[in-house]
Amino acid sequence: MNIVMKNFKCEQCGKSEAVSCCAHVDDKLPMSGHCSQRFPLEWAEEKDQQAPERETWNRQLDFIMCCVGFAVGLGNVWRFPYLCYKNGGGAFLIPYLILSILGGIPVFFLEISLGQFMKQACIGAWKICPLFQGIGISSLVIVFFCNSYYIMVLAWGLYYLVHSFTATLPWATCGNSWNTLNCSESFGNQNCSSTSGTAFNVSDWHCNASNSQTSPVVEYWERKVLRISGGLDQPGSLSWQLLLCLIAVWLLVYFCVWKGVKSTGKVVYFTATFPYVILLIMLIRGLTLPGAYQGVLYYLQPEWTKLTNPQIWVDAGTQIFFSYAIGLGVLIAFGSFNHFNNNCYRDTFIIAAINSSTSFFSGIVVFSTLGFMAAEQNVDISKVAQSGPGLAFIVYPKAVSLMPFAPFWAALFFFMLILLGLDSQFAGVEGFMTGILDLLPASFRSFPRPLFVAIYCFLTCFITLSMITEGIFFFHTINYKPLIYTTYVYPWWGEAIGWCFALASMLCWPCIAIYKLSSLKGSLKERWNILTMPIWSPHHAEYLTIDRDHETKNT
Length: 555
Description:
Helix 5 packs across helix 17 (492-506). The longest helix has 34 residues, at 344-377. The chain has 20 helices and seven strands. The protein has 555 residues and is mainly α. The chain folds into two domains: 3-52 and 525-554, no CATH class; 60-162 and 179-196 and 212-256 and 264-512, Hydantoin permease (Orthogonal Bundle). It is 55% helix and 5% strand.
């Protein structure tokens, strides 16, 4: 598209200036109008320079599947069921649906439509109001942190998957090299409790008995997989087995995104749909187990009195924003690959319906199995109900170890876990890379995209190495409560690391806004007007012309 310069006069303020416009619609652009319809000089390009074409999805279904794969993740399986049970069963669905309609779906639509309209990722899209461009940077910081630690769940899942192909599951018995003298395979008399329902909190599941016995599944998780040291100041050595798993999943993510949405749109058909096949198989199996009915009843039985508790509304709101993947900038990036006139309103409702339905369906699958586990151990289901990694790597492995053909069901579960996390991970990487590449000058975009992706994956993998040490809980510092692991209290500098992670994203918008306001000349009102005025791109030219013609006809 050729860009030329024309003189422009605003009818309202009378100001004349040179603006850039598109050559092929040059004769259609009005020579007068309002300043909000102008193309600012910073968007002007040299004449005859070819603007890079924006990549688009091969099919619109690719976009829907990628959004489903990104939004439908581990939180739907290991967080929603627990919150539903914790907050009154079926009664939890009322605030969940209300807040979905009032908050989740509108913001979901806003992010997709913003990317689609501006044809830019999370930072460039905020040129619609440059003052708020720091919000895009905040999103990029958050998704960078998420990409760094979320990959660990995949590495743990792969570790368990590999060790599921044995005649006897290694976490089902004592007497192994990693077990202690307190290890006991008899779990029925133990008091197992959950102290938290947070999304990522591996420290809040513990089982104690009067004689200090511990479960083999807990010892396998803490002593074999994590190899937890005495404290955060004792990082210890790297786990070479987890290192291999980490490298393997990063290579998998790389080859899913290295060619952009063209490759992502193909891979996601398998990674986003096959988990539903596994969930259906596990549902059929779970409902045939003794105690399954009691588990599902425990999950759905409403307690209407809890609707008056503000916590149920807080949990519903946080779950919606968590499971819809709002505020990470990835949805904006995905929307930017849509055609300009795509019906994103329809797409939003389709994706939201699939997301919420998956959460509800997953709850039946999970609690049918937990009901069986509670019946087998002769304990109340509240003793085994858990969320987060505590469900994925302690409770559920224990449950499948009690089933006939346990290795098969364990392998099936962890394969599903990897697929659920994989498309969320490579969607996060795609969103981050798109945001970064959109900021680069056009000359840099001629470099091979696979090279940029490889550099990013390598650097992030290097950062993640801190999470496979014996100190491990650099992963655990992303929390807002005082950091503890059973009886171990983290030092002040460990909490400081967590606060630095949090503030790194929260301070982006105010700092960028202050910088932009202070760097411009003129009065505060003039600077405010400039920074709240959209910066249109060349692809908006014909649509602005249509709007202008429509306004002229009406006047």
